[in-house]
Amino acid sequence: MQEKFDALLEDCAICLRRIGLSPREYLPSVRLTHNRSRIGSCKKLRGGRRPLFQISCSVDACKTDAQARDVLYHELIHTLPGCFDHGERFREAAARVNGAYGTNVRATRREPTRRVPEVPRSEVESLVGSELVVRGRRYRFVGLNGRPKRCCDLRDERGRVYVCAPAYVLAHLAR
Predict the structure, then answer these.
(1) pTM for the full predicted model
(2) Is residue 82 over pLDDT 90?
(3) pLDDT for 76
């Protein structure tokens, strides 16, 4: 797998050079991770006039070669001068790559969120004091608060309070 990601990285760098974008010096080997929330990163190992970068990619988040290419393009763009953040230069370079290769390079990747169904507060008022089990941990539904959608307060064994939606309480009640 390491060889595959390293080859994809080199191919992405060649493609950037073809369209006039020259990535700065980076380690030739991709650091593979199993992170699901951060699918890629570009770390500056050495600064100055000749910076050196290390590019990481999550093997769990990149299921296809196209996804891996998008992440590697994104991280290689960070090595360009003035593109270490997601500012205007970064977005311009990403647009050039997307236009040239039909990729989907963006500043951030947003996965579609699951919609929580609306549940009236009146449906959960009678459940105050009930116990919930979420991922093996026990919580007690201690009451309602003044927030419009996330109006339920849960308390764990240590006494910490968490706020959640009424639908969450209904879905996790201990049966």
Answers:
(1) 0.62
(2) no
(3) 92
Average pLDDT of the residues of the chain: 85
pLDDT score at 70? 92
Q: Is 86 exposed, middle or buried (0-12, 13-18, 19+ CB in 10 A)?
A: middle
User: What is the three-state SS of the chain?
Assistant: CHHHHHHHHHHHHHHHHHCCCCCCCECCCCEEECCCCCCEEEEEEECCCCCEEEEEEECCCCCCHHHHHHHHHHHHHHCCCCCCCCCHHHHHHHHHHHHHHCCCCCCCCCCCCCCCCCCCHHHHHCCCCCEEEECCEEEEEEEECCCCCCCEEEEECCCCEEEECHHHHHHHECC
Selection from 60, 51, 53 nearest residue 13 by Cα: 53
Quick: pLDDT tens for 93-114. 999 999 999 988 888 755 555 5
Who has greater pLDDT, 67 or 135?
Answer: 67
Closest C-alpha among 99, 139, 141 to residue 124? 141
Contact (Cβ atoms closer than 8 angstroms) between residue 39 and residue 95? no
Asked if 60 and 77 touch (Cβ cutoff 8 Å), the reply is: no
Beta carbons of 21 and 93 less than 8 angstroms apart: yes
Strands 31-33 and 52-58 turn out to be: parallel
